[in-house]
Write a structure and sequence with these properties.
The chain has 2 helices and 4 strands; from the N terminus they run βααβββ. It is α+β, with helices and mostly antiparallel strands. It has a single domain, classed as YaeB-like fold, CATH 3.30.2310.20. It has a 4-stranded mixed sheet with strand order 1-4-3-2. Helix 1 runs antiparallel to helix 2.
């Protein structure tokens, strides 16, 4: 079963900030990373349970992208939905709020 992937506003804000920050020094790399992150989000439509749950946040899962970035998402099996909540640059410190 394929799930519908929904990009939450918090994810869109995070992604915009990441891409803008990188684009200052390297616009091509920023665009490439932005596309890579979006593609990874969209790939969650198939078997979204494949990544581990976050112990401290029930119902939230996490996937690490290119060492420094973490995608946080929630699977709503009853609705056939994946809500992508955040894309966090781990160099910024502890994980963000996801509620």
């Amino acid at each position: 079963m394929d799930f519908k992937v929904v990009f939450k506003e918090t994810l869109l804000h995070d992604l915009e900030q990441i891409v803008r920050r990188i684009a200052v020094d390297n616009p091509i790399a920023a665009k490439s990373l932005g596309n890579f992150i979006v593609n990874r989000c969209e790939s969650l439509s198939f078997f979204p349970e494949r990544y581990p749950k976050v112990r401290q946040r029930p119902g939230i899962r996490r996937v690490v992208i290119r060492k420094n970035f973490k995608l946080f998402y929630r699977v709503r099996s009853d609705l056939g939905l994946v809500e992508v909540l955040r894309c966090w640059d781990s160099r910024r410190g502890s994980d963000p709020r996801t509620d």
